[in-house]
Each structure stands twice: as C-alpha cells, then as structure tokens.
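Justification of computing resources. Each target in the renewal requires a structure prediction run like the one illustrated here; the chain below, 304 residues long, is used simply to show the kind of job we budget for.
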Amino acid sequence: MGVRVWGLALAVLASVCGCTGGVGELPKASKEFTGAQPFDVLKGEEMGMLDHARLWAHARCMADAGYPQVSKAGLTEPRDAFDYLKIGPGGGKAGWPSEEIARAKGFGADQDPPPAKIVSSDPAYDALLVSCEDKAWKALGDDAKTTYDQYHDLVVNKVVVEYHQLLPRDDYHLYNLKAAECLEEAGFPAAGKNSTLERPSDYGVTAGGYAGPDPEDWRPQQKPGTVQVGPKPAKRVYVPTERESDLAVAFHKCNTKLGRIKFINATELEAQQKIITKYKSQLAAYDTPLESLAHKATTLTTPT
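Resulting structure tokens:
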C-alpha cells in the first residue's frame, strides 16, 4: 500500500494551475453529520465472519490432506466487509481527523500484517486448493456460498454503485477548486496541468515510505514438489517526509477552513439514506440468514 488515494479527493483539474479564481459561493450541507450512518444496517460484520470462517475451514482441509502450510501462514482476524464505506469523521476517504494525525501520517497509512506468503511448486497442492475451497463453503452450510455471493452482489453491484451515482460531483468539484486555491496560497501549488492533486508528488513533494522489510521481497528458491511459507510479516509503519507532513497539515487546515469535510460527510449521509430506503426490503431479506450463518461460522472457528 503506497500513499493514500482519496476516494473523494481533489479530482483531475487542469484549470487549477493559476485559474481557480472564478469559483462562486460554495454549496452548503442540508444536514449535519451526526455519526449515525444508514449503511450501519449492512451486514458487513456477518459477511466478514463468514469470509474468515471459510478461510479457516479451507486451511483445516489443506492440513488434513497433509498440507499445513496454509495454517502456518496464518489468518487475519474477522473484519467488517463494508468498513470501507464508513464516513469520516473528518478522515477516511476525505481527509484527516486532526492536525496531529495529518502531521504524523501524511498521505500514508500503516499496514496490518497479512498472512505469510506461500509459494507452491507442487501441482497436487495447487489442485487441492480448489477442492478444499468447495469443502470450506460446505462446512458452513449448503446455502452459505449462495447467500454470501448474492448479498455481496446486492451491496457491491447495486447499493454501492447507485450510492456513488447520487453523490453531488459538481458540488465536490467546486470545493476541490477552492481547496487547490487554498493550498497554493499556503505554498503548495499544483506541480503541473496533469496533476491529480491526490498525492504529494502532485505538489512537487517527495512522499515517505514504510519502515521495516517488505514481505513481497521474499524470494524462495523454488524446488519441484515443495510448498514454502515465507517469514511472518510484521505491522508496517508509514513514515512521511517532513515536507509531506507539512502538506498534509496544510490540506487539513484548508479542509477545515472551507468546511469541505463537513459538506462531503453530510452529502454522503444523505445519499446513504436514499439508497438504503430504496433497497430496504431486499437487504432485510438477508438479515436472518446471514446472522444465522455468522453464528455457525463463529461456533466453527471457536476452539473447544
């Protein structure tokens, strides 16, 4: 993971460079962001638990067949499958929660350790990966995979797609122009007409990097018939450059001055409510099945 890419950050604005002067009055949010989010009704935690249990059962199947490497590589903890849709407060997709965090992290974010890397040179292992995938789903129930896939499709390909279509892009564009103008006044002009204005390099600023080894650097000596597990990765801490931190602080101050984050959060909240209202009955039909499957998944993965 490199520098953070803002989902609603400054878009490609060829007109930014010296031409932001004519922006009129900025639109105001119709509602205040309170922290309560309509997307909280999505069964992200249940979907995350199902995915975790599927991986657990898959590793168990491989180990039972004589391949413990997947288990040795480790599993990540269950996580909300739709956490990426969460709004703010003043952070996440649109900015930083505070000046202190902006200075400490710049445009980057720490990386939680993934499972260790596995490199296979064993065709039998590779074939078993596929058959154990089917067995893993069946361990959760005959309808587990179908329910998971259908709900994922409903949320990702309908709810989320239409949600993004409801966002006021033209209004965001006006805020982006003002934010770019504010950053230029703070000493951070865009580096060129093709700047995306999403990365430090777009302002002529050198980005930082991660402390510690990159797990992708592990290169085992591949031998036919072997399955090798790499070293267990550690959490990687992002360290910004001093100038990157200064840019992030300036960006945070411009966001605060303009009320940009407040506007983005409020309009996202309004769009969430509209789309959840539209799909309320379709989403609710999966509540009980997913809760039941998540309970079974928790039971399956709990040590006895």
